[in-house]
Write a structure and sequence with these properties.
heterotrimer; A mainly alpha (262); B alpha+beta (166); C mainly beta (107); B: alpha+beta; Immunoglobulin-like; 2 domains; 6-stranded mixed beta sheet; 3-stranded antiparallel beta sheet; globular; C: mainly beta; 5-stranded mixed beta sheet; 52% strand
């Protein structure tokens, strides 16, 4: 790799020089990543006939009805019509999981159902079917506010704090924290792209860069790679804690799934 | 579209530093898919591709309207509309619309075939542009004439690219 | 999984009215110009042809190239001439074929 070493060091130094501690975005100033996009990309998200994420919603709807595994059951056999039963569900994840004694995210919950209830082979993270099911389930919460799960369940508190400290911790070769971009410098430009506040309200999203739908964990992995920090295995507790923190940080904001992002 | 295009300022940021960070981030995540670039089409290969469609006929400017954003957030998806002035009657209509680019690996984008039953000679689609470049639309009329329009699109590259994890 | 397609055609139209037909289908549209992380070329896999018929008569046809986006999106127009069926067909590399049809009522 022919990385430009000079500029990397310069960037790291400049961040170090601007050492004001990260303050959370005040609640009334929070804005979805949608607000930072150009009119074309916004139009793509607004129109269900033009939003490619809706193809994944259709995929998920088909998967929801499909019987699978040794149990010979479809999601619909237990949960019936997702349009009713899944309404608001994505707004309440991650939530505390009794079995593991820690938070579980929506994809993790769906994957667990797959192996335990349907007794089917596990669905890999980022597989087309798992992402489609997550998009389909989360789409049923579109327009609903993200709930404050930590307020409802104090057992989540230590994991929220773990997520927060990850968000604020400098890491990687660029020695950056999430907070330095998404708390301190949102609205400004990074190599021509506006820096959003980092609210996960549209996930799973259709990302033009990916040319496909993908989960929040894929996006977080992407951020870590951009910071030249070590990324985690998909499904790792670090991602789930960070998701819990980001969803708490976005509490009250409206779910947009499937969001479209550049 | 470009309303938020301000360099970082305050808190020790300078334009140079920000650009540096952005450039440095690209090779980190872009992986081989972007580093190994295939041969590009060129204005010449685009001309050749156009010649295959048009032959030696004259291409006139006008009657074609090509709508492209001046600046695109991601070259993987650029909205594009072509409208051709035509009565779309049995005697006088658009037979085909062809779209070409200069700098993708191949010059062709899409060719559509229509006729008087279209009622209106307009298509809307989304195209890929590998880089900032000129796009050309050519309409073929029922009288054998060819008309064209061109537009330039600036493609911004993402600051945070990644490899494909799956 | 099969390819999903989203098609929008007005359910009802007046005779002689120009209607807008919107189509989008799930497909990677792999260009054939990219390489995998191990450096292997990724073979081309695109939808190369699209056609729309109105009561069996072709009214629109397109040839697609790798410069079309993933999940190709296309809007075109036709004159509503009679009630019946609009049928859409996409074909491409590796034997890809998808078909869908939509009814329209013209009064």
């Amino acid at each position: 790799m022919r990385a430009a070493r000079g500029p990397v060091l310069a960037a790291a130094f400049l961040f170090a020089a601007g050492a004001a501690p990260a303050a959370e975005v005040p609640l009334p100033e929070r804005r979805s990543g949608y607000d930072f996009m150009g009119p074309q990309t916004r139009g793509m998200q607004d129109d269900d006939m033009a939003n490619p994420g809706m193809l994944s919603v259709l995929d998920g709807a088909a998967a929801w009805e499909r019987k699978t595994g040794a149990a010979g059951k479809a999601c619909a056999d237990c949960h019936r019509d997702a349009r009713q039963s899944m309404k608001g569900v994505a707004a309440r994840y991650p939530r505390f999981d009794e079995a593991t004694g820690r938070p579980i995210d929506l994809e993790g919950r769906i994957a667990r159902c797959r192996t335990e209830r349907q007794q089917a082979p596990p669905l890999a993270r980022e597989s087309r079917e798992l992402v489609a099911l997550a998009v389909y389930v989360a789409h049923q919460s579109r327009g609903l506010p993200v709930e404050d799960m930590v307020e409802k369940d104090a057992r989540l508190r230590p994991f929220l704090e773990a997520g927060r400290s990850q968000f604020e911790r400098r890491q990687g070769q660029l020695d950056l924290s999430c907070a330095q971009c998404h708390n301190d410098n949102w609205g400004k430009s990074l190599a021509g792209n506006p820096v959003p506040q980092g609210h996960p309200t549209g996930y799973p999203i259709y990302r033009l860069e990916w040319q496909s739908v993908g989960s929040l964990q894929r996006r977080l992995r992407n951020c870590l790679i951009g910071m030249r920090a070590e990324s985690y295995e998909f499904g790792a507790p670090e991602y789930v804690d960070l998701t819990l923190y980001l969803m708490w940080r976005a509490r009250g904001m409206k779910i947009e799934t499937p969001g479209v992002r550049p | 579209m470009a309303q938020t295009k301000k360099p970082f300022e305050g808190r020790g940021w300078t334009r140079r530093g920000v650009l540096g960070a952005g450039l440095a981030a690209i090779p980190a995540g872009a992986a081989l898919t972007l580093i190994v670039r295939p041969a590009e089409a060129t204005p010449e290969t685009m001309k050749d591709a156009i010649k295959k469609v048009v032959g030696d006929a004259e291409i006139r400017k006008g009657r074609v309207k090509l709508d492209l954003p001046p600046l695109s957030e991601n070259g993987n998806s650029v909205a594009c509309a072509v409208t051709v002035e035509s009565p779309m009657s049995a005697a006088d209509h658009v037979k085909a619309i062809h779209l070409f680019n200069e700098k993708n690996p191949q010059p062709n984008v899409i060719s559509v075939h229509l006729g008087p039953r279209a009622g209106k000679a307009r298509i809307d689609t989304r195209i890929r542009l590998s880089d900032t470049q000129t796009v050309t639309a050519i309409a073929q009329m029922s009288d054998g004439s060819f008309w064209s329009a061109s537009a330039n699109v600036i493609v911004t590259l993402g600051a945070c690219l990644e490899d494909n994890p799956t | 999984m099969t390819a999903q397609a989203l098609i929008h055609v007005p359910k009802k139209a007046k005779r002689g009215e120009v209607i807008e037909i919107r189509t989008m289908i799930s497909h990677v549209m792999e260009t054939g110009f990219r390489r995998s992380q191990s450096g292997e070329p990724i073979p081309r896999n695109i939808i190369a042809n699209f056609a729309c018929t109105y009561n069996g008569v072709e009214i629109f046809r397109a040839e697609l190239f790798p410069a079309m986006t993933a999940n190709p999106f296309l809007i075109f127009r036709t004159v509503a001439v009679e009630s019946g069926t609009l049928a859409f067909k996409w074909t491409g590399d590796n034997g890809f074929a998808a078909e869908q049809s939509v009814k329209i009522e013209v009064g």
